[in-house]
Write a structure and sequence with these properties.
Length: about 625
């Protein structure tokens, strides 16, 4: 009986491992090379080669933060302490001319696929009220745009994702599925995090693999870090020779800004000088660090933002506390990333790991409105200023706590966090919306440790760079589906050549009306007003489709001097190029914030306007 039991276990194990091998093999079919005769004696067995990563292929970790401006983290000259990022950058490379799409879902879709967001149906969002029934806008990444996880898993990697996913259509995001657009349907072996754009950091809408699970009450950053470490350790125990890919995307520092007072209180009094002093100090630090040109000029404060010295004592007290909480939130996020990095070091894998860190998926957020937001979401933008400030002052002690369910800092701090650039998140026309810090850490491959790279780059470049550095070719097909061309440009050429000329020379940008086109240092851009977010007079101006601006970034790094009237031929050339890019990449039709807010796009016949949906969400949160 004992022998029979052992035999049964052995057979079960063999069946399991064989089926696992076949399931992996199914991703990259190999023609059968054996002989099938009438009898076993007349036949010749054959087994497909097991899937293996290229010899010496490193582990890969992508870290993507949320809503962090260029001038927030100490690593790029900011006043918020980020020792983990500092260490990785000092032992790796700082890419100072890296760009995102200006808002979260398009950036994530572009990052994961190596293709422009509208090319993969994510020009807007996967949310019902912010997507539309057009090829570039339906919020459904097609199977013809395989993700980095699908590519690496088919090449012998285990693949894990934790944190914010953000590109699953709303109607698919229940435990009933379908699951093909969940992370596990897009190449990830395991996922732990949330599917939407924003979640409460203490009561997250939490998912593990293909089901919602109950959070444990701790901060989400701690939970996703623990889970990432557990995934890595589980693999190391059974297949230490196999590399892994980890996509680590915390909800931080997106609203709600929530963090333990241990972290926020470290910044008490640190921002009492205000946002004007912050911008000036950070600007000088950035020059000394070499992350901006020595001849760069700091733009004037946005006219909608009051000078700090013109604020009342109550306003200063309130606004400074908002920034203390935000700073603590970012420093705490850096700490949790540090736990992950230290663990890789402890298990002797850090030197064998390629790490990309994008400090933000867009510029700093303007969604906190002019006065800051604690618990009433975007609807607070419609309230009179004095009423909004008085409300927030009464609840100043709640900022950063679990009670601050929509916590976000005022617009003045968003501009400060975006130093040295103008404007902020959602403004695809401006460097303040699209220009983010990038760190590349790769002990095996980087000789110029602590170096700075100024080559123009975009979020679509990270996937092809990763494939180049690990020795994997982008597939022509995934599971029998022909793949769209990768649109990014590998940055591998610049890793050990600081002076190499940029190879990514053309890039378009578009977010709900705001738009830009970059070519060889020149940039044409068209802003789009969004009074729902800022609630200010300037943003209520009518949209003028002819109000294009023109900048030469080679000479004017911070977009201060509009050359549209001086060089009309160059502007016309770039506008024509934008239309060409828009048509090529499925960006038509141009959908604007007004279309979204007024409910002119409909995923379903009973779709609400964005504004009505926000009201419903706010009412629901107030009743909880």
């Amino acid at each position: 009986m004992k022998e029979k039991s052992v035999l049964n276990k052995l057979i079960s194990t063999l069946i399991f491992t064989t089926s696992l091998s076949l399931s992996l093999h199914a991703q990259t079919p190999q023609p059968y090379q054996g002989v099938v005769g009438r009898t076993l004696a007349q036949s010749k067995e054959w087994w497909p080669e097991p899937v293996k990563a290229p010899a010496g292929a490193p582990n890969v970790v992508w870290i993507l933060l949320d809503d962090v401006g260029f001038g927030a983290a100490n690593t790029f000259g900011g006043l918020i302490q980020t020792p983990t990022f500092d260490s990785l950058a000092n032992n790796g490379l700082r890419y100072t001319n890296f760009h995102t799409t200006a808002i979260c879902a398009p950036t994530r879709a572009a990052l994961l696929t190596g293709r422009n967001s509208s090319s993969v149906h994510e020009a807007g969002f996967s949310h019902t009220v912010m997507s539309a029934g057009f090829p570039g806008w339906d919020g459904r990444i097609p199977s013809s745009a395989g993700t980095i996880a699908e590519i690496l898993r088919a090449n012998g990697y285990n693949t894990f994702a934790v944190g914010k996913y953000g590109v699953t259509p709303d109607e698919d995001a229940t435990d009933a599925g379908p699951f093909d657009r969940w992370p596990t349907g897009k190449g990830f072996d395991h996922f732990f995090g949330f599917l939407g754009s924003q979640t409460d950091q203490y009561k997250p809408d939490l998912v593990e693999d293909q089901a919602h699970v109950r959070p444990d009450g701790r901060h989400l950053n701690a939970q996703i870090t623990d889970k990432a470490i557990s995934y890595i350790d589980r693999q190391e125990r059974v297949a230490p020779e196999k590399p892994f890919f980890l996509y680590y995307a915390p909800g931080a520092t997106h609203a709600p800004h929530q963090v333990d007072r241990y972290w926020s209180d470290q910044y008490k009094g640190k921002f009492d000088k205000g946002w004007d002093a912050y911008r000036e100090e950070v600007f000088e630090r950035q020059k000394k660090l070499g992350v901006i040109p020595a001849d760069a000029k700091l733009p004037e404060r946005n006219p909608d933002i009051k000078a700090w010295d013109q604020l009342s004592p109550d306003e200063k007290k309130l606004y400074a506390r908002f920034m203390e909480v935000y700073a603590g939130y970012l420093t705490y996020t850096d700490y949790e990333v540090g736990r992950l990095i230290n663990h890789l070091k402890e298990i002797n894998q850090l030197d064998n790991t390629l790490i990309f860190i994008s400090i933000g998926d867009n510029g700093a957020s303007k969604e906190g409105t002019l006065n800051g937001d604690i618990d009433r979401s975007l609807v607070s933008a419609t309230l009179p200023e004095k009423e909004n400030i008085a409300y927030n002052l009464r609840k100043i002690g709640e900022i950063g706590t679990p009670a601050a369910v929509e916590g976000n800092y005022p617009l003045g701090w968003a501009q400060a966090a975006n130093t040295p650039f103008k404007y902020w998140k959602e403004d695809a026309n401006s460097e303040g919306g699209t220009h983010n810090p990038l760190i590349v850490f790769y002990p095996k491959g980087i000789k110029d440790k602590g170096g700075i790279r100024t080559q123009y780059s975009h979020v679509i470049d990270i996937l092809p760079t990763t494939l180049d550095l690990v020795g994997v070719k982008a597939p022509d097909e995934i599971r029998g589906i022909k793949q769209q061309p990768i649109e990014g440009t590998s940055l591998a050429y610049s890793i050990n050549d600081a002076k190499a000329p940029s190879r990514h020379t053309v890039q378009y940008y578009y977010i709900f009306g705001s738009r830009a086109i970059y070519k060889d240092g020149w940039k044409a851009e068209l802003p789009y007003p969004n009074s729902l977010i800022t609630g200010n007079a300037a943003s209520k101006q009518a949209f003028d489709e002819n109000a294009w601006e023109l900048y030469n970034l080679n000479d004017d790094y911070t977009e201060r001097i509009d050359l549209a009237k001086k060089y009309p031929e160059k502007l016309a050339e770039l506008k024509a190029l934008f239309e060409e890019q828009a048509k090529t990449h499925n960006l038509y039709p141009y959908i604007t914030w007004d279309d979204v807010i007024n409910g002119r796009i409909h995923r379903t016949k009973d779709s609400k306007s964005f504004f009505d949906a926000v009201k419903d969400i706010t009412k629901s949160s107030e009743n909880q």
